[in-house]
Amino acid sequence: MRIQKVYKDDRYLYIDTDEGIRKQKLTYSGSDELEEECHRLAKKGCLVDHKTVGGWSRDEWFADIWEVDQNNNLINENLGSSEKKDNVTISSLNDLEEADLSLDSKKKV
Fold it and tell me: Which residues contact residue 65 at a Cβ distance below 8 angstroms, ignoring those fewer than 6 apart?
């Protein structure tokens, strides 16, 4: 997904992407920083991914956004070279979360 346009009205921050429009309430904590990041990513023209919170639809809302490569790997460009970690895919994080949950269910109470 690529951001094509970033704009807002009295209630929402919008990103118009090649996969449709997403929005976030301006009352959401950190919306000013998120708006700056959206403008930066739009100007760069890079691929992005996003998340929502509370089970809200990813087709309509966003709570956070970040740059990814064509394989959906997180880009850690803001880290210094000594701080860079191996790129992580969102799906691998989901797999790890599921694995952690399955381990919890095997614990004796």
Answer: 3, 15, 34, 37, 38, 41, 48, 49, 50
